[in-house]
Amino acid sequence: MMVEDSDNTGAQGASGLDLSAYDEEQVRLMGEMCIVIDRDDKAIDAASKKTCHLMTNISKGLLHRAFSVFLFNSKNELLLQQRAVEKITFPEHYTNTCCSHPLATPLELEETEQLGVKRAAQRKLEHELGIKPEQVPLDSFEYLTRIHYVAPSDGMWGEHEIDYILFVKADVDLDVNENEVMSTRYVSMDEMKEIIATAEEKGTKLTPWFRLIDENFLYKWWAQIDDLDKMKDHETIHRLL
């Protein structure tokens, strides 16, 4: 599969797409090159973040690799973030600690021990939350499984990803990038359940991948946070479509 992508066109069928209404830094990040994959998570190409997130391309089946980090402190509380208003997809939505994409670079394409995805997670934890790599070394990330989902953000943008789920337990220092993150909060399991239960009533917006993970997996994993080996399923790609 070859994906049309250039600074001028940016996406199949979207030549000259005008992004002037969006935040300048977020538009710059739309030029990062994501890893295009097939349904079995085999890397087959590369395309810009913009190309991968346009619904016109998603509707044609364009699929990319992603990750979701769930970071817990020593009290077993989960760090949540609220995405900044500047974000192009799912602004102001609450979500897990960090969600992004490995890039189509040699270091982040490496699949042995999921090193590429873990390097990307380490990079984005620092970019979004100011967490230094030495506080979350690569061997501290626990890779649990993958989910495959699709979700529109609005009429133009959306997500279609195979998402690597990473747990990490660490007490970290935060220096939040306000262009990425509006707020952060540590929650207990009971507090997380309350947020989910009252989200509709309170108008709390949750990212679709976070809701899917919450509904299908989160609490059984959380309950085993100190003994995750038996929770790992590296063979299955869970199709939550």
From TrEMBL:
Q: What residues does the Nudix hydrolase domain cover?
A: 62-212
- Protein name (record): isopentenyl-diphosphate Delta-isomerase
Q: Which cofactor does it need?
A: Mg(2+)
Taxonomically, the superkingdom here is Eukaryota
Q: Which family does it belong to?
A: Belongs to the IPP isomerase type 1 family.
* Lineage of origin: Eukaryota, Fungi, Fungi incertae sedis, Zoopagomycota, Kickxellomycotina
Output the InterPro entries linked to this UniProt entry.
IsopentenylPP_isomerase_typ1, NUDIX_hydrolase-like_dom_sf, NUDIX_hydrolase_dom
Q: Pathway, per UniProt?
A: Isoprenoid biosynthesis; dimethylallyl diphosphate biosynthesis; dimethylallyl diphosphate from isopentenyl diphosphate: step 1/1
| Species whose genome carries this gene | Coemansia erecta
Q: Which GO terms describe its biological process?
A: isopentenyl diphosphate biosynthetic process; steroid biosynthetic process
Listed under catalytic activity are:
isopentenyl diphosphate = dimethylallyl diphosphate
Among Pfam families, the record links this protein to: NUDIX (PF00293)
